[in-house]
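Renewal narrative, Specific Aim 1. Our central claim is that a sequence can be written position by position from structural information alone. The example that follows is taken directly from our test logs and has not been curated for this report. It begins with the structure tokens describing the chain, in the order in which they were read.
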């Protein structure tokens, strides 16, 4: 296996010069860089990633922090973490999952943070490492998310096109930008019709939406479609419809948002807005690594286009 000394001999330069080309190429002239790169190619020399990291004062560790309650029945964050881990692994980085109460915010090269709320801004802003958020934000951090406006606009437009006489938005009762965006998508689509809007908000628990629908379904005419801000809320709606003695999609329509797992085990299977959570995880890691390697890079925000997946909780209404 070729060594750094071998490269230096072939390039006819010192080992120090080879080291600088590998670790700090900006400190070396273009002519010397080309000599060293040519020697590395000839010898098929691959720099030791750990040694390079030490030379650059890197740890090759990224810390991931989840600030919201996890649902053990839904693999949403597991899919996200797998995407992050695979992208980090491809770039010789390790992932370290930490809690928000961890006092050690050093010993890493950057952070990926999920579930940030307004009250978290102050302490996150004090982190002196590159930070990428999973989820839209208004605070100037780079983020990766779905295009939430597009998602609920697609869902609502689909319900409109299918002839539903009333369309209700069931939102998550949280003051967060992603939720405001989902409400905006609903309102934008509804503004193109003469239908009245109605927005109801709950905590993101199926029991809350289930109980409301079971107790209040009589106030909603048949052929009402409930556009929900999560599959969890949508499952609660379908259960509430059934417990009220009605059926989806025969009597009412239901559309979810997430498309990770719950949509496939519900009865009926949910029409939903599917997010590519694995790809978003990969992107979180890629954006953070770019910030680590280029600290002066401008803020980068990426919004993935979600997909409408049509299943059995909606139908075309006879007009």
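The sequence written for that structure reads:
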């Amino acid at each position: 296996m070729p060594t750094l000394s071998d490269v230096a001999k072939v390039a006819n330069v010192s080992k120090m010069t080879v080291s600088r080309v590998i670790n700090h190429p900006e400190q070396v002239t273009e002519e010397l860089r080309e000599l060293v790169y040519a020697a590395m190619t000839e010898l098929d020399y691959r720099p030791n990633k750990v040694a390079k990291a030490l030379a650059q004062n890197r740890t090759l560790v990224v810390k991931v922090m989840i600030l919201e309650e996890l649902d053990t029945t839904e693999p949403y964050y597991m899919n996200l973490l797998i995407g992050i881990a695979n992208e980090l692994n491809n770039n010789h980085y390790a992932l370290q999952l930490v809690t928000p109460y961890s006092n050690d915010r050093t010993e890493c090269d950057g952070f990926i943070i999920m579930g940030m709320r307004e009250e978290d801004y102050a302490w996150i802003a004090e982190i002196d490492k590159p930070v990428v958020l999973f989820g839209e934000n208004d605070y100037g951090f780079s983020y990766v998310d779905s295009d939430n406006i597009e998602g609920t606009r697609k869902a609502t437009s689909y319900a409109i096109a299918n002839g539903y006489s009333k369309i209700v938005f069931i939102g998550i009762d949280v003051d967060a930008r992603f939720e405001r965006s989902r409400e905006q998508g609903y309102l934008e689509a509804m503004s193109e019709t003469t239908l009245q809007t109605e927005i109801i908000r709950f905590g993101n628990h199926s029991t809350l939406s289930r109980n409301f629908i079971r107790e209040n379904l009589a106030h909603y005419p048949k052929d009402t479609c409930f556009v929900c801000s999560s599959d969890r809320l949508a499952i609660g709606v379908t259960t509430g419809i059934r417990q009220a003695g009605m059926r989806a999609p025969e009597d009412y329509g239901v559309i979810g948002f997430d498309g990770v797992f719950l949509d496939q085990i519900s009865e009926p299977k949910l029409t939903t807005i599917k997010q590519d959570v694995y790809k978003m995880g990969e992107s979180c890691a890629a954006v953070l690594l770019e910030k680590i390697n280029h600290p002066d890079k401008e803020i980068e925000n990426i919004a993935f286009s979600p997909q409408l997946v049509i299943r059995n909780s909606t139908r075309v209404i006879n007009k």
